[in-house]
Amino acid sequence: xxxxxADDHELIASSLESVISSHHEFTIYKAFNKDMxxxxxxxxxxxxxxxxxxxxxxxxxxxxxxxxxQYPQCxxxxxxxITDHYSINSILKLKPAGFLLKTDSLDTINFAINEVIxxxxxxxxxxxxxxxQELNYKTNAPSLSKREKEVLQQILMEKNTPQIAxxxxxxxxxxEMHRANLFLKLGVKNITGLIKKAIxxxxxxxx
Length: 207
Description:
Order of helices and strands: EHEHEEEHEHEHEHHHHH
Radius of gyration: 21 Å
CATH superfamily of the largest domain: Response regulator
Number of helices: 10
Number of strands: 8
Mean pLDDT: 91
CATH class of the largest domain: Alpha Beta
CATH architecture of the largest domain: 3-Layer(aba) Sandwich
Strand content: 15-25%
CATH topology of the largest domain: Rossmann fold
Distance between the termini: 45 Å
Low-confidence stretches: none
Strand order of the largest sheet: 2-1-3-6-7-8
């Protein structure tokens, strides 16, 4: 069985290769950049790809959908150190066969590989806990008015108060009022906190 470990850090890739080869009789290839990965996929019948998200100058979330389309026979396990809610959701939307964190134990990584090659999915316990917390947030999410959602959308587009007022055809004072209401409803004190809570409450997907 041919597999690829795609990680731009050679030390991490080699460590994974050592761990995996001690438990499985795979032919293991390593890719340290996207060009190497594409060449290996083109020239070998790869059954499993273990893919880091921050892959050199590339974000694997951007190119994995195309790889999945081109190589449907290749199962993908995403292995990453990224743990923010937005990135986790972006990865899960890709529906990889496996989703692991680099903080997961070696036993967990090997167990996940076994599950995936037996056509079962595996998601890290930490990721499942994050989704559970997110569900709790969503259940308790505050109700926003139509105008508050519009103001929030403009804030997420990195517009300042005068720009939001122009975009929504309202006064600066009206925007400031709605922004104050958003701060109050979400229990935050600044824009950074507002964006974080909007993501946690899944409000981003609603606007």
